[in-house]
UniProtKB/TrEMBL annotation:
Signal peptide: none annotated. The keyword Coiled coil applies. SUPFAM superfamilies: TPR-like. Keywords: Coiled coil. This is Tetratricopeptide repeat protein.
Length: 198
């Protein structure tokens, strides 16, 4: 057998180093999603909602499916429910519809049912989000009612002063937010009839 030349030994050493580097780097890249998820959990604990959303979106780009026991690195497994965490962050930012969408996605993926505590969190925050949606709808309804009341009040004042065009203009504000409001529609019709008679 011929002895190995310097060039052959050098080439072999370089090949071993390159292969070793590739093997050593691959697990860190493959598990990168976990780093984002871990930072997102820290951000949630610190109530840094925007930061949590950014990190969760990065984690989701790398690993989109949830799991109750997902291997992160080595033998370590974690509960990985990024859409639940995303929904919680959106909820705290007041983005109720985005939160509800995230909760729905997490539940549809199906893995969260395997973790009783995480599923309880999902149900809890979904309930809070639905209550938030109902509160927002109620507040919007009250805001619209206030605009219509104010519009009718202004229209009455202008009508008593004989300023019918201004009265109609005042009613337009109320009808813009609630075009089916019976009182505003009736008042507008009465004002139109009065203008026609003049």
């Amino acid at each position: 057998m011929k002895p190995l030349t310097y060039a052959t030994r050098r080439f072999g050493l370089i090949a071993v180093l390159v292969i070793g580097t590739i093997v050593a780097v691959t697990p860190a890249w493959a598990d990168y999603w976990y780093e984002h998820y871990s930072r997102a959990e820290t951000a949630l604990d610190n109530e840094s909602w925007e930061r949590a959303i950014e990190e969760l979106q990065q984690a989701l780009e790398r690993k989109g499916d949830s799991g109750a026991r997902v291997r992160s690195y080595g033998m370590k497994v974690v509960a990985y429910f990024p859409y639940l965490k995303l929904g919680i962050a959106y909820y705290h930012l007041g983005q109720i519809e985005a939160a509800l969408q995230a909760f729905q996605t997490e539940e549809q993926l199906g893995a969260i049912q395997a973790s009783r505590s995480d599923f309880a969190d999902l149900e809890h925050f979904r309930r809070l989000a639905l209550e938030g949606r109902a509160d927002a709808a109620r507040a919007e309804g009250e805001r619209i009612e206030q605009i219509v009341r104010e519009s009718l009040r202004e229209a009455d004042i202008f009508e008593r002063q004989g300023r019918l065009p201004e009265a109609m203009e005042a009613l337009v504000k109320g009808l813009a937010v609630d075009p089916e409001n019976a009182d505003a529609v009736a008042k507008m019709e009465a004002l139109r009839n009065e203008v026609v008679r003049l």
